[in-house]
């Protein structure tokens, strides 16, 4: 593996801290009934270093704020002068199956809500979005209560009895290996980025990426095209052992392969 300590985190964060890429992700990952209410052009990437002070330099976490439009045909509800109605989206990246994710997220959510209250005395809902591409099948459910069932020793009936005391919350899971990037309403670069993440552990990663590399030819700006492809190549170099063959064989066939995105 390359010299970067957390190459998956570094790549995913670099991609989705860019506003246009974040908008594509939100549009694809959240339920349509929520997306239809969002003013995606208002998306802002927030400094989320306060969310995890201990590991803020190594995490792939991002925090987005997005204005919430009123329902169609209805004016904005009267409220105190706190600015536009907003939601926040906490982007949590996981490259492995982490059974402690809900404990981690509840701590992050508490810090975000505490920051909201201490700064403006106003709460804006936070949607936890988990971007997952681990080798193991996701089996952690999509609610804290699912983990309580698995790890508390209590049955569902007992948990229902105690539900009002449990700070339950749900997540939106973006399970990258289960998604075909070509079917998503995203740009060609984001399709390539998602495919790179999906196939990063496959020795034949470049074979999988050729169709996505070819689509980068639609990018009019030559500098942007080079930037996109270089970012992906650097990610693969950082994660895969060059001697394993994936990178070496692709380079040996370099003339043919580089023509695919020229």
What does this molecule look like?
This protein has helices at about 5-15, 20-30, 30-35, 100-120, 145-150, 155-160, 190-200, 205-215, 220-240, 245-250, 255-260; strands at about 40-45, 60-70, 85-95, 125-130, 170-175. With about 260 residues, the chain is an alpha/beta fold. The protein has two domains: about 1-180, no CATH class; about 180-260, no CATH class. A five-stranded mixed sheet has the order 1-2-3-4-5, sandwiched between helices. The longest helix is centred in the middle third of the chain and has 20 residues, at about 100-120. The relative contact order is 0.12. The mean pLDDT is about 85.
Shape: globular
Taken in chain order, the helices and strands follow as HHHEEEHEHHEHHHHH
Percent strand: 5-15%
Largest sheet entry: 5 strands, mixed
Radius of gyration: 21 Å
- Write out the strand line-up for the largest beta sheet, numbering strands in chain order: 1-2-3-4-5
Total beta strands: 5
Count of discrete alpha- or pi-helical segments spanning 4 or more residues = 11
Mean pLDDT: 86
Kindly give the count of domains: 2
| End-to-end CA span | 28 Å
Unreliable stretches = none
Class computed from helices, strands and strand pairing: alpha/beta
Helical fraction equals 40-55%
Topology summary:
Layout: H1 7-16, H2 19-29, H3 32-35, E1 38-46, E2 62-68, E3 86-94, H4 101-120, E4 126-132, H5 144-151, H6 156-162, E5 172-175, H7 188-199, H8 205-215, H9 222-239, H10 246-252, H11 254-258
Parallel strand pairs: 3-4, 4-5
Antiparallel strand pairs: 1-2, 2-3
Helix pairs in contact: 7-8, 7-9
């Amino acid at each position: 593996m390359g010299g970067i300590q957390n190459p998956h985190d570094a790549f995913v964060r670099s991609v989705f801290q860019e506003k246009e890429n974040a908008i594509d992700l939100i549009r694809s990952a959240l339920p349509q009934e929520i997306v239809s209410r969002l003013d995606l052009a208002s998306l802002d990437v927030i400094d989320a270093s306060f969310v995890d002070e201990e590991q803020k330099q190594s995490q792939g976490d991002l925090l987005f704020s997005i204005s919430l439009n009123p329902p169609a045909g209805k004016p904005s509800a009267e409220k105190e002068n706190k600015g536009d109605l907003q939601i926040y989206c906490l982007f949590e990246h996981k490259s492995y199956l982490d059974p402690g994710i809900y404990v981690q997220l509840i701590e992050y959510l508490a810090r975000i809500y505490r920051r909201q209250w201490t700064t403006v005395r106003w709460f804006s809902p936070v949607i936890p979005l988990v971007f997952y591409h681990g080798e193991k099948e996701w089996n952690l459910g999509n609610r804290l209560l699912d983990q309580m069932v698995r790890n508390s020793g209590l049955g569902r009936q007992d948990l229902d009895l105690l539900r009002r005391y449990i700070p339950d919350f749900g997540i939106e899971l973006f399970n990258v290996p289960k998604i075909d990037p070509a079917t998503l309403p995203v740009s060609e670069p984001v399709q390539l980025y998602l495919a790179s993440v999906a196939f990063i552990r496959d020795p034949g990663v470049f074979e999988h990426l050729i169709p996505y590399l070819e689509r980068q030819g639609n990018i009019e700006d030559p500098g942007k095209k080079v930037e996109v492809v270089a970012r992906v190549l650097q990610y693969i170099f950082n994660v895969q052992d060059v001697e394993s063959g994936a990178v070496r064989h692709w380079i040996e066939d370099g003339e043919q392969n580089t023509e695919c995105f020229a």
